[in-house]
């Protein structure tokens, strides 16, 4: 309840502002701001771009985290291992610090460009490709992956122990399954099924990120949070209702995702019984 009240209050305020009921320049009830947002291609491009950044970064982070867990799970358990220390380091830094680090690494005057230029691969440092503020969001993806992968690795490592994956894998192999079959029919389904809700919430988290795309992103397309904040902070007061309309639409979108996550039948917990079904398949 303590969480719902502030969010609900903010949504009501944003909605009333977006329909002209309250606000500095309100002239009474109107849906023109919503119509302007829904018919503006920049809103849909921003929503699609945010979804692209979230899906790609989370997918790559999952692959990297699974690789770390499957090949270095013993090192993750040990508190004195180098792998364990390296995983915890990125979790200590806020998003804006990671964004600044990525800029120093991947910009035209950054670390990588200087190394490549020093090795003679590039004749001039200015010929280094644009990897910050680029169309495909390379530096944004890099920053998100750098922040998310350690968390997923720790999460998957804990699930690996809690679900006794080694025991389930040994049972499957004793019944005739190969290592590849055990991996794709036992290990990965169990881990990913248990982590499904967390993965989905991280997709929402990345879509809503602000500091990283603000520093490393382009003016067009922008991620949805940057688009809303810039409209809110512009000198043109007529853009403020549109900013609140964007916020309301995004909150509705996120609310639908959370509804299907927590209230659909597909979000029930995985039991040990699917072991035999997966193996029989």
SSE arrangement:
Layout: H1 4-18, H2 32-38, H3 41-77, H4 82-88, H5 95-106, H6 111-118, H7 138-162, H8 165-174, H9 179-194, H10 196-207, H11 211-216, H12 224-233, H13 240-263, H14 274-280
Helix pairs in contact: 1-13, 2-13, 3-7, 3-10, 5-7, 8-9, 9-10, 10-13, 12-13
Membrane topology: Multi-pass membrane protein
Keywords: Cell inner membrane, Cell membrane, Membrane, Transmembrane, Transmembrane helix, Transport
Transmembrane segments: 7-29, 49-72, 84-106, 140-160, 197-216, 243-263
Low-confidence stretches: 267-276
Number of DSSP E strands = 0
**What is the CA-based Rg, rounded?**
23 Å
Q: Order of SSEs, N→C?
A: HHHHHHHHHHHHHH
Count of discrete alpha- or pi-helical segments spanning 4 or more residues: 14
Shape verdict: globular
Query: Any idea of the CATH topology?
Result: MetI-like fold
What is the name of the CATH architecture?
Answer: Orthogonal Bundle
Q: What's the CATH first level?
A: Mainly Alpha
The percentage helix is: 55-70%
- Main β-sheet description: none
Q: What's the multimeric state?
A: single chain
As a percent range, the share of strand residues is under 5%
Can you tell me the CATH superfamily?
Answer: MetI-like
First-last Cα distance: 44 Å
- Structural class by sheet pairing and helices: mainly alpha
Q: What integer is the average pLDDT?
A: 84
Give the domain tally.
Answer: 1
Describe this structure in words.
This protein is mainly α. The chain has a single domain, classed as MetI-like (MetI-like fold, Orthogonal Bundle). 70% of the residues lie in helices and 0% in strands. It contains 14 helices and no strands. α1 packs across α13, α10 runs antiparallel to α13 and α12 runs antiparallel to α13. The longest helix has 37 residues. The radius of gyration is 23 Å and the shape is globular. The chain starts with a helix and ends with a helix. This is ABC transmembrane type-1 domain-containing protein. InterPro entries: MetI-like, MetI-like_sf.
